[in-house]
Specification:
It contains 4 helices and 2 strands. By secondary structure, it is mainly α. It has one domain. A two-stranded antiparallel sheet has the order 1-2. The radius of gyration is 10 Å and the shape is globular.
């Protein structure tokens, strides 16, 4: 599930970094983020994100198979 940078930015506006994958998922759920966004986060391999750009990059590439 690939998301573009603008979709990611809209879902993460105002979030403090760095953030763990689990905290990012919890925050997305608390903000009632889109199901597509939450499912996309759940399958990425990266466990920690230093900034918004790293989240966007992980969602662009998807999980490693």
């Amino acid at each position: 599930m690939v998301m573009n940078d603008l979709e990611v930015l809209a879902q993460l506006e105002g979030l403090s970094y760095p953030v763990s994958k689990q905290d990012l998922i919890a925050e997305a759920e608390a903000r009632e983020g889109s199901q597509h966004f939450i499912e996309s986060l759940q399958v990425v391999d990266q466990e920690r994100f230093p900034d918004h750009e790293s989240v966007a990059a992980a969602l662009q590439t998807g999980p490693r198979l």
